[in-house]
Amino acid sequence: MRKKIVAGNWKMNKTFTEAEELITEIADSLDEMELVNTTVVLCPPAPYLELATDIAQDAAFKVGAQNVYSCDSGAFTGEISPMMLKALEVDYCIVGHSERRKYFNETNLFLAGKVDALLKQEIIPIFCCGEILSERESGLYFGVVRKQLEESAFHLSSGEFKKLVIAYEPVWAIGTGVNASPEQAQEMHAFIRGLICEKYGEPLAKDISILYGGSCNAQNARELFSQPDVDGGLIGGASLKSAEFIQIVLSF
Ligand code: PGA
Questions:
Q1: CB of 237 closer than 6 A to ligand 1?
Q2: 58 in a domain, yes or no?
Q3: Is 1 a residue whose pLDDT tops 90?
Q4: Given 6, 139, 247, 248, which residue has the most CB atoms within 10 angstroms?
């Protein structure tokens, strides 16, 4: 049975003290819950990863990074390597978020290198894909997502690919307050699972967790997560408050 996952993408938010408070609150709440087959992942900014992995040692959540570079070491000023994340006991890493594609010009090919480098260190990539508004409106969205997957992930062997988590994040829904409807999310998730099935076969496709992201919150999570191919969420804004984030975790 594939895993249900709720991952919080904090983006570039919180002071150190606020981060400590939020992580502790979430850890305390999770402590009182009995989650079955649900994994909670917190992705704070890089300077707080060690704090998060320290707290995670005695708590029911995993830690993810928001970004990584594709080499293990070298003259890449400002970058963080998968090896460094591994040393911090980070388990997941977001790859291909639309903000990285847009503001930092990350291409499908460049992202393929990050996926490879993470897998080499046994860190699970949360691979993000999704179309922009004009691509949705002109009906090009299936093709866009297909290309993103083909160029960044379909070079992997089935043994490698099965370790991935996919996040469908329509760019027009991110931070806008306009989420994809449950039907739109289901349609795309089923399409993605179909592509994976064509490429890697049904057992693997059935086992891959596909998360939805984009204005997912405590109000709409239950309906989104009840779709057969939606296995959880990658949550931005609504992951910054413990009560709301926990409510989302409870939405399966
Ligand atoms: P949002 O962001 O929930 O604030 O829309 C989601 C994301 O960017 O991962």
A1: yes
A2: no
A3: no
A4: 6
On whether the pTM is more than 0.90, the answer is yes
CATH number, domain containing residue 143? 3.20.20.70
Q: Is residue 205 part of a domain?
A: yes
Looking at the CA of residue 237, tell me the nearest atom of ligand 1: 4
Q: Give the structural domain span for 218.
A: 67-249
Residue 8: CB within 6 Å of ligand 1? no
| pLDDT interval class at 3 (50, 70, 90) | very high
Per-residue pLDDT tens for 177-236? 999 999 999 999 999 999 999 999 999 999 999 999 999 999 999 999 999 999 999 999
- The atom number, within ligand 1, closest to the CA of 234 reads 9
Nearest protein Cα to ligand 1, atom 7: 236
Q: Is residue 46 one of the residues assigned to a domain?
A: no
Q: Which residue's C-alpha comes closest to atom 2 of ligand 1?
A: 236
Q: Give burial (CB, 10 Å; 0-12/13-18/19+) of 219.
A: middle
* Residue 188 is assigned to a structural domain of this protein: yes
Nearest CA to ligand 1 atom 1: 236
Ligand 1: centre distance to CA 174 (Å): 5
Residue 165 CA to residue 211 CA, distance in Å, equals 8
Question: For the chain, what is the domain count?
Answer: 1
- Which tokens hold the place of 189? 């998730």
Neighbours of 240 (CB within 10 A): 17
Ligand 1 centroid, distance to 156 Cα (angstroms)? 27
